[in-house]
Every structure is written in structure tokens, then in C-alpha cells.
Amino acid sequence: MKVKEVADLVGISVRTLHHYDEIGLLSPDQTTESGYRIYSQANLETLQQILFFKELGFPLKKIKEIITSPSFDRNEALELHRKMLLEKRKRLDQMIRTIDKTMRHTKGEIEMSNEEKFEGFDFSHNPYEQEARERWGDTAVDESNAKIGKMSKEQQKALEEEFDLLYKELASIRHEPADSDVAQEGIKRWYNYLNRIGNYSLDAFKGLGQMYVDDVRFTKNIDKYGEGLAVFMRDAMAVYADKNKD
């Protein structure tokens, strides 16, 4: 199949397939003398595998590492995909039930306990952890998880409250220049907070700030504290990192 035929079959863009080829993730088995990419059935099976991983939130770099590993087993991967998707469906089904009950509660048809209002939410697994590992390695993430895991529930709650307070403080100064004293003092507290639970270099700190803007998931969550907060934090974190390298 030619690239346009594959794109139409799968529902992705030709540019995406070209990108997969450019980064060595999926290269067609044949290329004609006139330059047309020709995809084999084996290529299509690999593409299916790539898209399963992508649906589950794996970054392309990690997908490439997995599927090019000598130990990669397609059947084992499919079993893993199925298990993870079933878990995802179970959680989504619970959240839909919570929404339905909340709608009835809002209309006065039923009463909901506080516990019922949050059924289906599960933040025990950080959806961004894989990306953090890809960008900065395992050390900072593992150290952070280990430190938090050793804390009591009261200590973890205090940490969450401090996190919330820090974001509210940063939101209150988000209209200040990123290099102003007040902005730098606020972002310094954020840097110190992160390094109490992990081990972030100045470069990692700056990169994290950039991800706040590059990744719409981060931007959406951060900007709940105030529109434009993600951009402000990115700029202030970059200034802080650059200044303190000297």
C-alpha cells in the first residue's frame, strides 16, 4: 500500500507517517524508483502496535525503544495492551456512573455522599511519570517517589496543601515580569519545594517549565489556578535557572 492509502485506512495524516519514517519508528519495506513509499502487511502490523502504545500514552521515543528491542514479543505486547485498556475502560465506566449520579444529585433526585462524588478518580499513578522519566531519567522520579512513599499520610497531606498554596501564591503574581524580584522569589520557593521531594538540576527545572507550556495537559491543569500561570512559570523558571548557573 502507498502512504496515502495507509493514511486513509488508519485515519492519520500522511505527514505523521513521514515523521515515523524520519525518526526510524516505522520505515516502509519498499520505496519505488520514483520515490513512493510502499508499506507491507508487516508494516501495517507494526503500525497497529505503535498506535496501541500511543493510545495508552507512551511517547514515540519509548515506543521505538520497545518495538526495536530484541526481546520484544508482539503477542505479549498485545496482552499488555488489552489489560491496560480494560483497566482504562473500567475506570471510565466508573467515572460515567459518577457523572450520571451527579446529574441526578444536581436535579435533586438523589443524595450523594462526599465519597460517591469522587468515585472513579485515581491519582495514585501519575500519567506524566513516563514522560518525566524520558526527559530527565529515572533518578529524580525514583527519589521523589521513594521520599513521598516513606511519608505518613499526614505528611503527604501537608505536602499537598503546601503545593496548593504555592500555586495560589504564584497565580497571584503571574502578571509580574518573570525577572522581577517578586517573581524570582516565588519561583525559588517552587524550586526548593521540588528538590525537597526529588533531585532536580537547574536544567531539569528549566525543561520542566517548558513542558508546562508545550504539553496542553500541564497547561490546562496549571491554568486552573489562573489563566496564563503556565506561561509565567515557564518564563520565571527559565530566568531562575539561567541566573543561578553563573
Automatic annotation (TrEMBL):
Q: Which SUPFAM superfamilies match?
A: Antibiotic binding domain of TipA-like multidrug resistance regulators (SSF89082), Putative DNA-binding domain (SSF46955)
Report if keyword DNA-binding is assigned.
Answer: yes
Entry keyword annotation includes Zinc: no
InterPro entries this protein is in? DNA-bd_dom_put_sf, MerR-type_HTH_dom, MerR_fam, TipA-like_antibiotic-bd, TipAS_dom
Q: Which PROSITE patterns match?
A: HTH_MERR_2
User: What are the entry keywords?
Assistant: Activator, DNA-binding, Transcription, Transcription regulation
Q: Which residues form the HTH merR-type domain?
A: 1-69
Q: Name one GO molecular function term.
A: DNA binding
What is the protein named? MerR family transcriptional regulator
Give the species this sequence originates from.
Answer: Ornithinibacillus caprae
- Organism ancestry: Bacteria, Bacillati, Bacillota, Bacilli, Bacillales
